[in-house]
Fold Glutamine--fructose-6-phosphate aminotransferase [isomerizing].
Amino acid sequence: YMVDKGNHRHFMEKEIYEQPEVISHALGHYVDFTENRVSAAASAIDFARIPSLAISACGTAYLAGLIGKYWFERYARLPVEIDVASEFRYRDIPLSPDAAALFISQSGETADTLASLRYCKDLGLTIGAVVNASESTIARSSDAVFPILAGPEIGVASTKAFTCQLAVLAALAVGAGRARGTISIEEERVLVRHLAEMPRIMASVLNAIQPKMESLARELSKCRDVLYLGRGTSFPLAMEGALKLKEISYIHAEGYAAGELKHGPIALIDENMPVIVIAPHDRFFEKTISNMQEVAARGGRIIFITDERGAAASKLETMSTIVLPNVDELIAPMIFSLPIQLLAYHTAVFMGTDVDQPRNLAKSVTVE
Ligand code: G6P
């Protein structure tokens, strides 16, 4: 299978711009767009009959799982236990054999994720795999396989696999909500329509924000540390933004829950450390704004990633504000992934690092 960069400088850039297309492809597998219902592919696990769900993964796939936890709990009222695979497998978590466990992995070969899977299998849980490589060891060891259909991902820093993992998890959570009766058919239809809008919105966002992300990246490339903040599903996204930046630009970055700012990272804030705040105008917006005020009051430079409603509602002065379209809460994490990916990508390009093959990292980690 030959893959080339097309007109792009790096595979990572190509994979970022491929997202509208691959997400549309992935969604087509899990969603019936004529009925606006979740399709049978999403119910390979009987979510109605399980008492709880365990999720385990590594790296970016783990952060997709963390966002999935918010969705399974909110839409399907399904309690979710989640941890990075290298902790999950050693924690002696009290897991019911009636429960199901989802393992998320782009490669399907990550050693710790596979070990967590085998551990759950021995305990008798139903095993589901959310994978890009459907012939992988993790896929072959599972009862149910949920392919993310992202196509080959070459860049070591995961981009399109992350958003496709999210798209699949979103469809599974909505399907689980229907199966468990925690959302109505009407609610399902509304949520599925939001999912269906995603590819078009992603394409227009990618097109609109590119120049701004490039000029912001020039600023970021001069920094030693960056703090990312978010609340709700924007919290795992903040961690993903920080992870992307670390991985390819080697700038030290941390992703923090906005509400935890005052319990530590606020001590680091000065005019040299940019604080990137991810805050769509959702249920938590006002709370996150007050955290931003704490940053501003200490001279921190804020890069504010929000939507049109959020931009209109905030009076705070920022170093830069990136305004995305207003979207439903369910799809916001996928849309808000785009600026954080482009920011990391362009920062790395300015720094002159090896974007597709960052030092010390591997695409597939088969050692524990
Ligand atoms: C490595 C890669 C990451 C990836 C992680 C999990 O660390 O560099 O990009 O998120 O492994 O990989 P997986 O294939 O299991 O998703």
